[in-house]
Write a structure and sequence with these properties.
single chain; 12 helices; two-stranded antiparallel sheet; alpha+beta; about 40% helix; 2 domains; about 350 residues; BirA Bifunctional Protein, domain 2
């Protein structure tokens, strides 16, 4: 019968098949094992086969299908072994290529060190938005529209807006905390700030600050001085001396600049301290009662102090870095010096 001849022909075709690549193997699979393979229609011929040959027909057909499956698996395994053999010249016992280990950025190192110092004495981290509104950035901090203190900071305002800006200090985080929480408040606010300044070795249009705020009943100037003395000795050494010079900030009264005695051991010390041995590290002061009132805190019941410092300045002091622009250039030769510097 023709159907038996067809089975024999397909059997011969399968036996002779020798796909040489994955594409040819896929064609073989589609022809003999796919959803529309050439073997499947032959099963429907069972009804036309004489009864005395049905058993023979079934056995031949099953053998044909099994032969196709075995042939496909055999060739597929051959291809896999060949692919493995192509990479057998790799010495898997050889040591791997060294991966360059990254390092912490000096600003991150300085920031983390300062945070660790203040969290030891109960300060908690507060963070908020970098795009701020005028009220939280200026007005709430006792700087009305015509106040000369606004001239101290050249501000980046958003396009077509006189209300939204890139924050000029992280003091805006303090105002948001004071308007949303009740005293006692003891926070530090680290983050990036922006000012429209000429980029030079000593200044940049973007930099980082960390500011602190402590508000509670009977907080005094002496509390502030002892807190900052503790910080200076943790940061620069146990024998560090500080001095406080009267200054002005619109949101604190009285206000002060804090200097540490850096010494005059070498020429670098003379240069960065201008020959005095003293180096300014931060500004501070007692929170102005008007600021407390603006933020909904009763100045007759609560007092507090605030302080702030530039993190780049601290990093420059710690690592004797002379140019602030190096922090933002992402030069690997510069950054790799600080591996394990914390």
């Amino acid at each position: 019968m023709e159907v038996f001849e067809l089975i024999n022909n397909l059997q011969s075709e399968i036996t002779a098949a020798s796909p040489e690549n994955a594409e040819q193997l896929e064609l073989f699979r589609i022809r003999f094992l796919g959803s529309k393979n050439v073997i499947k229609p032959i099963f429907s011929e069972m009804k036309n086969v004489p009864n005395d040959r049905k058993k023979e027909f079934g056995q031949l057909l099953n053998a044909l299908k099994e032969n196709a499956e075995n042939k496909f698996k055999l060739i597929q395994e051959t291809f896999e072994v060949k692919a493995d053999g192509e990479s057998s010249d790799i010495d898997v016992t050889a040591p791997g290529f060294p991966y360059l280990q990254g390092s912490r950025h000096p600003i991150s190192l300085a920031m983390e060190r300062i945070i660790q110092i203040f969290t030891k004495i109960g300060f908690v981290i507060a963070e908020d938005r970098e795009i701020e509104d005028d009220w939280h950035n200026f007005t709430a901090l006792n700087t009305p529209d015509d106040h000369p203190a606004r001239d101290m900071q050249d501000t980046f305002y958003l396009q077509n807006s006189t209300e939204m800006l890139l924050r000029t200090h992280t003091s805006s985080v303090q105002t948001r905390v004071m308007t949303s929480q009740k005293p006692p408040i003891r926070i530090i606010a680290p983050g990036r700030v922006y000012r429209n300044e000429t980029i030079s070795a000593r200044s940049h249009c973007q930099f980082h600050q960390i500011e602190g705020l402590y508000i509670d009943k009977k907080v005094s100037f002496a509390d502030m001085r002892q807190t900052l003395l503790y910080f200076a000795r943790e940061m620069y050494g146990p024998d560090t001396k500080i001095r406080m010079r009267p200054s002005y900030f619109p949101f604190t009264e009285p206000s002060a600049e804090v200097d540490v005695y850096w010494g005059l051991k070498d020429e670098t010390d003379y240069r960065i301290t201008k020959g005095t041995g003293w180096l300014e590290v931060l500004g501070c002061g007692m929170v102005d009662p008007a600021v407390l009132s603006n933020c909904g805190i009763d100045p007759d019941e609560y007092t507090g102090f605030a302080f702030g410092m530039g993190i780049e300045r601290q990093a420059m002091l710690l690592h004797r870095i002379s140019d602030i622009r190096l922090f933002f250039e992402n030069d690997v030769r510069f950054l790799k010096q600080f591996s394990g510097a914390l």
